[in-house]
Amino acid sequence: MQAKPKNIIEKIWEQHVVHTEEGSPDLLYIDLHLVHEVTSPQAFEGLRLKGRSVRKPELTYATVDHNVPTKNRHEIKDEISKLQMDTLRTNCKEFGIALADIDHPDQGIVHVIGPELGLTQPGKTIVCGDSHTSTHGAFGALAFGIGTSEVEHVLATQTLWQSKPKTLQVHVKGKLGFGVTAKDLILYFIANYGIHIGTGYVIEYTGEAIREMSMEERMTVCNMSIEAGARAGLISPDHTTFDYLKGRKYVRDDVPYDELVQKWASFATDEGAFYDKTIELDASRIEPQVTWGTNPSMGTGINGGVPHEQFEQSASEKDGLKRALHYMGLSGGEALQEVPVDYVFIGSCTNSRLSDLRLAAEVVKGRSVHKDVTAIIVPGSASVKKAAEAEGLDQLFIQAGFEWREAGCSMCLAMNDDIVPTGKRCVSTSNRNFEGRQGSGARTHLVSPPMAAAAAVTGKITDVRKLLEVQSV
Questions:
Q1: Whether residue 280 is found in the same domain as residue 244
Q2: Which of 52, 377, 418, 428 is deepest in the core (most CB within 10 A)?
Q3: If DSSP codes are grouped into helix, strand and coil, which group holds residue 325?
Q4: How far is the C-alpha of 133 from the C-alpha of 380, rounded, in Å?
Q5: Could you give the strand order of the β-sheet that contains 277-282, starting from the edge strand earlier in sequence?
Q6: Model pTM greater than 0.90?
Q7: Where are the beta strands (DSSP E) in 91-175?
Q8: Does residue 419 lie in a domain region?
Q9: How far apart are CA 81 and CA 75, in angstroms?
Q10: Do 104 and 174 fall into the same domain?
């Protein structure tokens, strides 16, 4: 009898269930636990108070990223930030956990270094005390964020109680157009379906546009699955995945690589597999995106405008729109192009990889940052920074007027001195545009790296395709 076709989510889940009983969550085995300085201190202290050890320290990997200064590296002015970083060092030493500390060559944003180092692999269950752990799903891993009490549970047992999610397929037909990126695709999806479309689901992204993406692009898509309300997002592994992982530091070298590939490939979704829900997108309809409001669904294509209050909206929708427009300093009806910009931030776990910096550099080359704009670039890891400098990207950006920084989370969440002042407008490649996310009263517009670069050199929200077309003439 032929086996029933299964999707990748079902396959990974079934292979990691340690205990199950009807009416209760399943107990899952966790293959990789990533740790940073913000959500881990209480978890380690909980182990001490209960007299417990870390069950499998070799399956835990730590780095400092949220609180790390990206300028004046060792001048940590905030005492809480310094304490959290010092505490992580103490905890990792005491419990025998590998740590990529502030000066370590592998240091960086946790969701950037996991894939870089080959810690992230197909078929794994991966958790971290950070909501954007879904990034790792790009490799065909089931990866999701957890709370501090769950961090302690994983440290102590290498397992986690989880209710089995429903499955959502987002199938992207066709190809992305000129000047359109993976960031635009995921922003388009969220703008059209909202921040709750994925609630209760794990999303698998499929289709031609997804298959043609690089691993870095796939990470961008999976990174923002959480902004659609999903528990996680992933993509079935293929040759793009396998080529990326070959030779990475933590990929096993004691077995033939072909054997690893065969195992990884077995997790890919079977032809004819069932999903609880399917949504289809047409890639050819997507243009460069920009958000205008205070959550990632409040966005539109670059040729769109800021919405007016609509007659058919409910009272709560009208109130939400009014509040967002007031916070963003907009009245409704404005064309997004021509909205002036004060700050530009290129970085975060969404868009700080080498390929992101290359895309931005294409736009910046031969141009200068507008005189009214403060623009900073924060590589996602020490490795990304080193590779970019080897290509001369740092000098290109510096000569254009950008600030070139060290690796860290930075302005994504307004850490250290990387803060957008009250009332100022920032075009950002990060993943969240909530009120106060980049600073009290800061106004954030989410875009792709080339769109951010275009805003930096023009001083306003701009359709990057106009600049790219000039270069191609």
A1: no
A2: 377
A3: helix
A4: 15
A5: 232-234, 201-206, 166-173, 277-282
A6: yes
A7: 98-100, 125-128, 142-145, 159-162, 166-173
A8: yes
A9: 11
A10: no
